[in-house]
């Protein structure tokens, strides 16, 4: 590869994971008692392996969290790993409003893409400004934050760390994000900002209850440069069957840079989960998070949880598999990967 910028794979060494904590001003207001324990479980799991960057709009709450999590970390032998910043936020989806960190010829750079709540579906102005608040507070050390006048969510792209981006046309070509940009223009932007010299577009894939227009991180994930995990539905009566079967065929047709096929691993399809109004919720095992030495895996209290854990143990034999009960998260149509953003090594150094 030529000397240029690159978006690291998620398995690359990390300095921290970012969490934007829920507060009463978010859509979590009525279920804070259910969802905060999930965020706490994620925070504790991350702290075992690396630093944790949390922010919350409520100053008193972020101070409480800082004391609690610092105490937990110190008690378990890894003190000094908590960075806490009071900062306004509309919601909690750090994967999509957090920065994307690229390696450039001049070192690391944090890219602050625009965020408009998946095409203007919800309020977004505070979330769009959050990275600037964190940078101004020193949360990213000396790493520069570069604004990018383009709407792009972290959950919409997967990187192999070697210049290949995996994405969905349903999401990136939605006109409510970047209406003046066609596929060619978007590929040019991904090349310029992320160093992508190959973009693999999935034209199929669907997840009921998803607000993101088919984010790739709910459907298919790079586990290594030559390996993709993906969700597969074997029930022909399920509403997802046709779209996911077509997606599987597309993945089988993709090739690596050297022309060889990708290693593909199917993840189980969870039993349907519905909200109190009978709407199907977007439970997916593809929404795992890779961190230093571990993989955090969302579970949903259904029969397929154990199989998903076992599959990912085989995919990541050198990492600890840490299950996190994420059933409360899907009440707001996201899961574990959606509420986190990894920050590569070299950025956060408290």
Automatic annotation (TrEMBL):
Answer whether the UniProt record assigns the keyword Hydrolase to this protein. yes
Taxonomy, superkingdom: Bacteria
Q: Which UniProt keywords apply?
A: Hydrolase
On whether RNA-binding is a keyword of this UniProt record, the answer is no
**What's the name of the protein?**
Agmatine deiminase family protein
* UniProt source species: Marinobacter albus
Q: Species lineage, top-down?
A: Bacteria, Pseudomonadati, Pseudomonadota, Gammaproteobacteria, Pseudomonadales
